[in-house]
From TrEMBL:
Residues 92-105 have a biased composition (Basic and acidic residues). This is E3 ubiquitin-protein ligase HERC2. PANTHER family: BTK-BINDING PROTEIN-RELATED (PTHR22872), INHIBITOR OF BRUTON TYROSINE KINASE (PTHR22872:SF2). Residues 436-698 form the RCC1-like domain. Pfam families: WD40_RLD. RCC repeats lie at residues 495-550, 551-602, 605-656, 657-708, 709-760. The lineage of its organism: Eukaryota, Metazoa, Chordata, Craniata, Vertebrata. Residues 75-119 are annotated as: Disordered.
Length: 1143
């Protein structure tokens, strides 16, 4: 059994030396293939498992996939030879076959030295100079021969293929990094400007009225409070007290929830009244000496008023306050009972409040019917399960347990917070990429998983899309509809076309005009015998179109105005070939509405139009229509990529990202700033300087998506299709605010709606959201108090399992804490402003509790997952550094923290910035000396056989200028140490098991979260170097950022090599005992630092070396890797059959 990754590492160093040298000489033969990365496959490459390239099966599959996707193109040859891989990264130039023959004729492999030696057979004897020259020629011939033999080996072929695959992956990763922009908080469009009269300052009379109101309210409150105190103390006028409190409670219940949430719309007088009333009522339950004089009914009314005030204020901090109050009252009542069973002090008639809270719904919450709950929802959380089976009593006067009331409130808060919370990357329902769909206009809805089709009518009363069950077993890859249409098309992965909806005019293609309720396959495109593999579909308002793989265009449906292109105005009820375009390969088609026009794009970038010609929408200068396709000459040389038909107008997108519009100009739908009709295609000047990658058209409005993720809109705004303006029309294209931070990758339009969706969810939330988000010190203090109280006994040391009440409370509190931390980080709030500064008691308490719940054994899975999610979202606040007694625990609990929400990218940027500062500080006279010392230290470390504590290394490459290391570097260092320690322990366990004749331990093939994080970090680091060397021209040295990345890479390689240098000697020692030992040790190492990180790192360094050897020499990474060759060689020599590999 041979450990392929280690063999690759061992082989690479030797091959790289010759490879890099030949590149520098620029004498390399041109390849017979070219790497042509296609932008449309970038997302696919970001999702692949690059580690598959290190197995022969995975390598073949990935290479063949690239060939199939035409990302590897061959220059006139059916197959490729090993020599063809030599320079796939540099400039590629096709080499003619006769050039190869000429080269072979001119320079036979060994003709030079043979002719020299033959000349000495019968001539004079050569002198010493001639012998030396001949020897040099012989050596050069041997080098050429050795190079040709080396390139022809299977390992060399596979290594070159892996280099191509790695570069393709880095191209996609670099592309995604280029698209990243600075994040900023989503802000709703500002309110329209008020009339001039409203903008004037308040009149002096209004100030006087406000002053009088404040005086009156204070006097009234003071009198009311004094009256209540006196009455409760003396026992007189008890009925009046109860009546006053009951009327106040009834008045509050009559108001809608969160009336006082937006304090800018509430009079300061009322805010003061609420504040004073809350304080007085809180004192009633907080002062134990006076509480005994207050009738129980009044106590219950005071508590109910406090709860109603909290729900009126709508802030999370106030709701948490009343939850803590309920728990405190329950505990006090329990103590007072002296073990006697009584509900007098632990219950109150609060059912009306709970019913009211139950009816509150989040603006983002989607209510799903029971029928679709299994399809549209993830596994139930503890609080979802609790609320699902919760049944409230019908009697409003029934006393409810105060602790149970607190549990129900927290469960509802968790329910309301869930739609606003960022997705948990550990959740099974959020594996892979996440997408956020944003909709605005007359209607907005939700969209569900890829491959399933959901539908929702614009006027539907349902709150969630309904699954189309007849297509649930099909993998649907494309859908087509029209803003003004009433029918739909769906294209499956096997090329079948389904249609349903209104069938008037034969638009469904089934041969009749009947309405079809369920998707039905169109027989003309069904079955392999038809030979019509459909790849594109389109809908007009009353007709349809489809394009086959051969580029043939088929149309069917209403034929008036010649919109079908068949030369007549007759309706066609089954798909019919547009013969006028036979010989042209159609790649895109768009169908219009009303007096419809049809546009088609051919492979050569030409646009053809036919149908109704009103307002010049056919783009040929007049208003004449035509019944067969005709060329739009004005677009002939512009290389059109896509076309769209709107209501009486047309839009075209060129390959270089320019947009042309023409046709009817009403409502500024053309984007030229006027209502004038345009009868020829006209360039949109407002989008000059932008590269548009997609366009979408509604009835009278348009959207355009740029390569930077901006969404520009223009046209009619009668249904708020553009949320950045309240004017009836938007004259010219302008970017919609807030969307460029969402990583938008797609757009679409309805008749009065606009849609955009992201490639991965950039979850955003404001600083204040009713009931669930209130980012302020008081909220974090309340969450800390509540979490410590309800998590008591949840650390796994007490009886198990804990009660459901405690589980629900802890999970809800953790979820609310996570949401507050996410909101604070998203809005770039300083931790010090929230009382969470470094070293603060509040921060230490929260960190200690969360880490305990996230890492202790015996903690419920639901609680542990919620705590780990808190660390994942809020690590930058909770774990500003990783020093202290709980360092090991923190690292274990937070191993996935950097993997979510761009955390790793941000931390990497900060680490690179620190490296740049260190490099600038070392540009003095001691720079060369320090670098030499660093390399010497690293070399010593790699060759050291004794156990070494990596945390004690504080000089050279491990810390700079005496500064405290960055959290990211510390985390990487700790993760490497933990994994290395675990691997060494597993290797020793292998030896013990074999010696005791025990069965081998099962080794999971899944990578740990720690390895995933390190692999992600390593790839990001390499991609930044790749992006720098491919985008930046070297002028007078390398730019500081590139050197900073190189310095960080060197630190990482030194740390990795040091730990691998500890693992391999142990592995070699155990593996040398026998073949079974070697096989078991190999299985362990294949899933470890040596088998996962090292091969990909060596391959990445190889690729970077072939692109810019000078930069890699500048970083000093190669000598560090070379220090491992001796260990790798020693281990590989233990493999059975290694002699065959060497020969």
């Amino acid at each position: 059994m041979k450990l392929n990754p280690l063999v690759l590492c061992n082989y690479s160093a030797t091959w790289l030396a010759a490879f890099a040298a030949k590149r520098r000489e620029e004498k390399m033969p041109s390849p017979s293939f070219t790497l042509n990365p296609q932008m449309r496959y970038h997302d696919k490459w970001l999702k692949i498992d690059l580690q598959r390239a290190f197995s022969s099966e995975g390598l073949s599959e990935m290479w063949n996939e690239m060939v199939k996707d035409e990302e590897i193109t061959f220059n006139g040859e059916e197959s490729m030879n090993p020599e063809d891989f030599t320079d796939c990264f540099g400039t590629q130039k096709k080499e003619e076959p006769n050039d190869k023959e000429r080269k072979e004729d001119e320079d036979p492999p060994s003709s030079v030295h043979q002719s020299i030696i033959e000349s000495w057979d019968w001539g004079r004897q050569p002198d010493e100079t001639e012998l030396k020259d001949c020897l040099m020629v012989l050596v050069e011939d041997q080098q050429k021969l050795s190079g040709q033999l080396a390139k022809s080996t299977l390992s060399a072929q596979r290594l070159r293929q892996r280099l191509v695959i790695l570069e393709r992956y880095l191209i996609s990763l670099s592309h995604s990094m280029r698209e990243e922009t600075y994040k900023f908080c989503w802000k709703m469009p500002s309110s329209p400007p008020r009339p001039a009269a409203d903008n004037k300052g308040p009149r002096p009379a209004s100030k006087s009225v406000e002053g009088l109101a404040r005086v009156g309210s204070r006097a009234a409150l003071s009198f009311a409070f004094a009256f209540l105190r006196r009455a409760w103390r003396s026992g007189d006028d008890a009925d009046l007290c109860t009546e006053l409190l009951q009327e106040s409670l009834d008045a509050l219940r009559a108001l809608p929830e969160a009336t006082l949430f937006d304090e800018t719309t509430v009079s300061p007088v009322w805010l003061e009244v609420v504040e004073r009333a809350t304080k007085f009522l809180s004192d009633v339950h907080g002062n134990g000496s006076t509480k005994g004089n207050i009738p129980l009914q009044d106590q219950h009314l005071v508590l109910a008023i406090l709860l109603e005030l909290a729900i009126q204020r709508g802030t999370l901090s106030q709701l948490l306050y009343v939850v803590l109050l309920l728990l405190r009252l329950w505990e006090n009542g329990t103590r007072e009972m002296d073990n006697e069973r009584s509900t007098q002090g632990t219950s109150a008639p609060l059912l009306s409040f709970l019913q009211r809270f139950q009816n509150i719904h989040s603006s983002k919450e989607v209510v799903v019917s029971e029928e679709d709950s299994e399809i549209l929802t993830a596994p139930l959380s503890p609080n979802e399960s609790f609320l699902r089976y919760l049944t409230l009593p019908q009697d409003n006067d029934l006393a409810i347990d105060l602790r149970q009331t607190a549990v129900v409130i927290m469960a509802h808060l968790d329910r309301l917070a869930s739609p606003c919370s960022p997705p948990n990357c550990n959740s099974p329902s959020h594996k892979g990429s996440l997408q956020e769909v944003i909709a605005w206009g007359f209607w907005a809805g939700n969209f569900m998983p890829i491959g399933a089709v959901y539908t929702q009518n614009y006027k539907s009363t349902t709150l969630a899309p309904m699954l189309i069950h007849s297509l649930s077993s099909k993998k649907i890859i494309k859908l087509a509809a029209h803003p003004d249409g009433q029918h739909f098309l769906a294209l499956s992965s096997n090329g079948e076309v389904y249609s349903w909806g209104c069938g008037d005019g034969g638009r469904l293609g089934h041969g009749d005009a009947t309405y079809v309720e369920e998707p039905t396959v169109i027989a003309a495109f069904s079955g392999k015998q038809t030979g019509k593999q459909v790849i594109e579909i389109a809908c007009g308002s009353t007709y349809s179109a489809a394009i086959t793989a051969d580029g043939e265009l088929y149309t069917w449906g209403r034929g008036n105005y010649g919109r079908l292109g068949h030369g007549s105005s007759e309706d066609v009820t089954t798909p019919m070939l547009v013969t006028a375009l036979k010989g042209q390969k159609v790649v895109d088609v768009s169908c219009g509405s009303g007096d419809a026009q049809t546009l088609a794009v051919t492979e050569n970038g030409q646009v053809w139009s036919w149908g109704d010609g009103d307002y010049g929408k056919l783009g040929r200068g007049g208003s004449d229509g035509c019944k067969t396709p005709k060329l739009v000459e004005k677009l002939q040389d512009l290389d059109i990529l896509k076309v769209c038909c709107g209501s009486q107008f047309s839009v075209a997108l060129t390959k270089d990202g320019q947009v042309y519009t023409w046709g009817k100009g009403d409502n500024q739908r053309l984007g030229h700033g006027t209502d004038e009709h345009v009868r020829y295609p006209k360039l949109l000047d407002c989008l000059q300087g932008k590269k548009v990658v997609d366009i979408a058209v509604g009835s009278t409005h348009c959207l355009a998506l740029t390569d930077e993720g901006e969404v520009h809109s223009w046209g009619s705004n009668d249904k708020l299709q553009h949320f950045d303006t309240l004017f009836p029309n938007k004259k010219q294209p302008k970017a919609l605010p807030g969307l460029n931070s969402k990583h938008i990758v797609g757009i679409s339009c309805g008749p009065g709606q606009s849609f955009a969706w992201s490639s991965c969810s950039e979850w955003s939330v404001g600083q204040r959201v009713p009931f669930v988000v209130d980012v302020c010190p008081m909220t974090f203090e309340q969450l800390d108090l509540l979490l410590r109280q309800v998590s008591e006994g949840m650390d796994g040391s007490s009886d198990w399992p804990p009660p459901q009440e405690k589980e629900c409370m802890v999970v809800a509190t953790l979820n609310l804490l996570r949401l507050q931390l996410h909101a604070a980080i998203s809005n770039q709030m300083a931790p010090e402003e929230l009382g969470l500064g470094l070293g603060s008691t509040l921060l230490n308490n929260l960190k200690q509790t969360v880490v305990m719940l996230a890492s202790n054994a015996g903690v419920l899975n639901t609680v542990q997952s919620a705590a780990q999610a808190v660390l994942q979202s809020g690590w930058s606040v909770l774990l500003p550094n990783c020093r202290g007694k709980s360092q090991s625990t923190i690292f274990t609990a937070s191993q996935r923290c950097l993997m979510a929400d761009g955390g790793l990218e941000s931390a990497l940027d900060a680490a690179i910035t620190a490296e740049i500062q260190d490099i600038e500080a070392k540009k003095e006279a001691q720079k060369e000396k320090e670098i030499d010392e660093q390399e010497a230290n690293a070399s010593t470390i790699l060759r050291c056989r004794t156990t070494l504590d990596k945390d004690l290394i504080n000089t050279g490459i491990y810390e700079s200028s005496g500064k405290q290391s960055l959290p990211l570097v510390q985390l990487v260092q700790q993760l490497l140490r933990n994994i290395a320690s675990q691997t060494i322990a597993r290797l020793k366990d292998v030896a013990r098991r074999i010696s005791n004749y025990l069965e081998a331990e099962h080794v999971s093939k899944e990578r740990s979260a720690s390895l995933d994080l390190l692999l992600r970090f390593q790839r990001l680091l390499v991609s930044k170097l790749y992006l720098g060397v491919t985008d930046t021209e070297t002028v007078n040295g390398y730019n500081p950022e590139l050197l900073g990345v190189g310095s960080l890479l060197k630190k990482y390689i030194a740390l990795l090599c040091a730990h691998i240098g500890d693992i391999l000697p142990v592995a070699t020692s155990i593996a040398s005992a026998g073949r079974r030992h070697f096989a078991e040790v190999s299985r362990v190492i294949e899933g470890d630092l040596t088998g996962v990180l090292l091969p990909e790192l060596v391959l990445s360094i190889a690729l970077l070396l072939t692109i810019d050897a000078g930069l890699m020499q500048e970083t000093g990474s190669i000598p560090l890797l070379a220090g491992l060759l001796e260990h790798l060689d020693r281990f590989n020599h233990l493999a059975p059959g290694h002699e065959m590999d060497e020969n």
